[in-house]
Design a protein that fits this description.
Elements (H helix, E strand, L loop, with lengths): L2 E7 L5 H12 L4 E3 L8 E8 L6 H5 L3 E9 L2 E2 L8 E2 L9 H9 L3 E6 L7 E2 L2 E2 H6 L8 E15 L2 E8 L5 H12 L3 E11 L2 E2 L4 E2 L1 E2 L2 E2 L2 H7 L1 E2 L9 E3 L2 H8 L4 E5 L6 E5 L5 E10 L9 E10 L1
Length: 302
């Protein structure tokens, strides 16, 4: 089986736990995830199966969307509900208007401070190794983009929100920084990923139901095949001869209406995905016409 299985990750599981379970259940040797979710978080976790692991980098860089709850009153060492509390719980009665004003400051491209307990590496070692040993480091930052940050409910010391952001955004850092700005500390208490790139929560399948873990056949049936992935990349159908030349690494010339696309999905006459190709050269036609010749080179071959 080659494709993507979108799992609704349960609370308490690491992303690696889910990968190991699916690998064991499906007996597929190559299974990878496309961006981790913290153990306390739930929701969309796309897994690449078989030859689809060659597409992992496309999914790693895709935007994400979340719903969650921020608990104000105290910060934690990990910036989330599982971390050690850093101070007493002040149990604030939040000002909803002030929360809205502060959250609006984070829209757009920002420099985000990374949590000390994160997998980001420094000198070849993840930051959490330094944090566990009590080694204090200068805060690391990274550039991320917050497309939307909506506040849905402010009640007591809790704020319910939804967020759309670029890949690599630390939602728990956003919660921590918002609490710092408000002046009472805060941490991320609940998080659910509702979209990862082209995969919404509606396409996610849970690992189990009331009767236990689903059988192998269930997950294979739920997997999205290669030909249905990366639909935002224009597709070109090629002949059997061009397919052979392309899969042997040769450039080919093809007709397409998407002349200026940097990449193309290459399908054979049955509709199967055979390659991702990059555009090498575009030929300007002498007169306006709907299709143009482009020369393409295979980038990923299936």
């Amino acid at each position: 089986m080659d494709g993507v299985l979108v799992v609704d990750k349960p609370e308490g599981w690491t992303s690696h736990d889910v990968v190991a379970k699916i690998r064991n259940l499906t007996r597929i040797k190559k299974v990878g995830h496309t961006g981790t979710l913290d153990p306390f978080a739930t929701g969309v976790l796309p897994l690449t199966l078989g030859r689809a692991t060659r597409l992992t980098n496309y999914f790693l860089s895709s935007d994400k969307a979340y719903r969650g709850v921020i608990r104000f009153g105290f910060a934690t060492a990990t910036y989330d509900v599982n971390g050690e509390a850093l101070g007493e719980d002040t149990r604030p009665e939040l000002d909803a208007q002030r929360i809205l004003e502060l959250s609006a400051r984070y829209l757009g491209t920002i420099q985000q401070t990374l949590p000390p307990f994160s997998a980001k590496k420094l000198h070849g070692r993840p930051l959490y190794e330094y944090a566990r040993k009590g080694v204090e480091l200068e805060p690391s930052t990274k550039q991320v983009t917050i497309h939307s940050f909506e506040i849905h409910r402010v009640e007591g010391a809790e704020v319910e929100f939804s967020l759309a952001c670029s890949a690599g955004t630390y939602v728990r850092s956003l919660a921590h920084d918002l609490g710092r700005d408000y002046g009472c500390g805060a941490h991320l208490s609940r998080l659910r990923r509702i979209r990862s790139g082209e995969f919404p929560i509606e396409r996610a399948t849970p690992l189990s139901d009331d009767k236990g873990i689903f059988p192998r056949e269930h997950f294979l049936e739920c997997a999205i095949p290669l030909a249905e992935l990366l639909r935002e990349i224009p597709a070109i159908v090629v002949s059997a001869g061009d397919r052979t030349r392309l899969t042997h690494g040769a450039d080919i010339n093809v007709l397409t209406s998407a002349r200026d696309a940097p990449e193309y999905r290459i399908l054979d006459e049955t509709g199967a995905l055979v390659a991702i190709a990059q555009m090498v050269q575009s030929f300007v036609p002498p007169v306006a016409q709907p299709a143009h010749w482009v020369r393409i080179h295979p980038k990923i071959i299936f």
